Amino acid sequence: MAKLKTRYVCQECATEYPRWQGRCENCDAWNSVVEELPATTHMGSKVSGGKPAELIALQGTTVDNPRLNTHSAEFDRVLGGGLVAGSAILIGGDPGIGKSTLLLQTAAHLSQKTPVLYFSGEESASQIQLRAKRLGLENADVHIATTGHLETILATMAKNKTGFMVIDSIQTVFSDKTESAPGTVSQVRLAANEIIGAAKKAGVCVVFVGHVTKDGQIAGPRVLEHMVDTVMYFEGDRGQPFRILRTFKNRFGATNEIGVFDMCDRGLQDISNPSALFLEERTTDAAGSAVLTAIEGTRPMLMEVQALVSATNQAQPRRTTLGVDGGRLSMLAAVLDKHAGFTFSSHDIFLNIAGGLRVTEPAADLAMASAMVSSLLNRPIPSDRVIMGELGLTGEVRSVGQMDVRLKEAQKLGFKVAITPTLPTKVKVDGLEIIQIKRLDHLVEHLFN
Ligand code: TYD
Ligand code: MG
Q1: Are 390 and 346 in contact (CB under 8 A)?
Q2: More reliable by pLDDT, 347 or 55
Q3: Residue 115, class by beta-carbon neighbours within 10 Å (0-12 exposed, 13-18 middle, 19+ buried)?
Q4: Are 107 and 164 in contact (CB under 8 A)?
Q5: How far apart are CA 422 and CA 22, in angstroms?
Q6: Domain chopping of the chain, boundaries
Q7: Is the CB of 274 under 6 A from ligand 1?
Q8: In terms of pTM, does the model score above 0.85?
Q9: What is the CA angle 116-118-119, rounded to 5?
């Protein structure tokens, strides 16, 4: 019989090594390699034959997953139309961002329709009760268990009929079956596997809270993301009240969908019209501000780009960004210099998306360039103007997707003029004047008048 080998596994990225080492060669983490005992003991023994699987005809599957609404239209939207019975969801996010709050609110509302269990390995029952009180939900029929012991969780699930349950967090769950510490790869994998298995069998919808590492990944093995049906991240700047819940994987809906919330003193509230809110505090006659319609998931959202261009006293001018990619800013500065004659080499540039938001799509190029030019010239862009398009390195303005959706959203919020790339003739929006530009140098002609 082959000798069983102990494995050494990096807890950050799950890379395996034959012996212990201080630093993981794959992800460069220090002290992350931990000894794990082999889980299987039948290695090398005779493999027993399997039974043939029961085959199911594709055309015969008429299972329509019934959805359970969560009482939050935003959460439902991110889920793809509500919770699916028997599905497993993983929610990641920075500490203090509001994961436990969202799930306690959801649990409380769902408890009117289905039995709810809330397992917390992080907080005491009185802490959770206190939060419920603060949220005005202290009379909800939610049952709390403050344990992280896997076998206890499974036994509790078996004893109590449940429709929805929360595990806050998966990193605190541990099993007697393995010696490793809670939060290690083998514990997390084992716990998630057993809980998902039990939940699927009983048709329970389970939500796991996952901690994130310094660089924003869900801690523990990546396999966790493969095991669940839906992975979402809770984002936001803790100094700001806005919170965005974003899906990265969804077996029951669209990915990259977002839900927008406001963290107020009575918990998380839906924001059904984020565009209006993000533009609320805009000052209309300030230089360095430009508005675009970004697309987040399937949803158009107006955002304000702010630029501050000021003369520098340093040899190396500063380029600072919040909510946009720093490389993109450098590229835009170079393109503006080369193709429109605006030189930023003796200026610091600060670029920010108002409200703690972020944009990654190239459609924001033209608005960012406009904000920079407006600040450099100290001339405000008229406040009824919305600007979008991608900028190429040769100074050409390139088209971006879903222009009709973007323009309609802008018109709905009272914008009168749109500066855009060349559009197909069929794109028309009543009450919105559309200025189509082909090259960057045309932008400045239309920006201020
Ligand atoms: P929490 O849900 O505990 O975060 P997580 O589980 O992601 O770590 O949220 C804690 C933060 O939310 C805390 O800083 C206080 C704030 N908060 C409010 O602003 N309003 C509220 O009603 C509640 C319950 C929390
Ligand atoms: Mg929490």
Answers
A1: no
A2: 347
A3: middle
A4: yes
A5: 56
A6: 1-37, 73-272, 277-447
A7: no
A8: no
A9: 145
49 burial type by CB count under 10 A (0-12 exposed, 13-18 middle, 19+ buried): exposed
Ligand 1 atom at shortest distance from the alpha carbon of 123: 3
Architecture of domain 277-447: 2-Layer Sandwich (3.30)
pLDDT tens digits, one per residue of 368-418 = 999 999 999 999 999 999 999 999 999 999 999 999 999 999 999 999 999
73-272: CATH class? alpha beta
Average pLDDT score over the chain: 89
Amino acid at 115: P
pLDDT digits (tens, 9 = 90+) for 42-71: 445 555 678 899 887 888 766 666 789 999
Q: What is the dihedral of CA 28, 29, 32, 36, to 10 degrees?
A: -30
The string of pLDDT tens digits covering residues 82-109 is 999 999 999 998 889 999 999 999 999 9
Scanning 111-184, the segments in alpha helix (DSSP H) are 125-134, 150-159
Do residues 73 and 270 touch, judged by C-beta distance below 8 A? yes
Q: Which ligand is closest to the CA of 134, given by its number?
A: 1
Kindly report the protein residue whose alpha carbon is nearest to atom 21 of ligand 1: 267
Using an 8 Å Cβ cutoff, are 409 and 292 in contact?
Answer: no
Bridge-partner residues for 306, per DSSP? 289, 352
The number of the ligand 1 atom at minimal distance from the alpha carbon of 209 is 6
Q: Is 267 in the pocket of ligand 1 (CB under 6 A)?
A: yes
pLDDT at residue 5 above 80? Answer: no
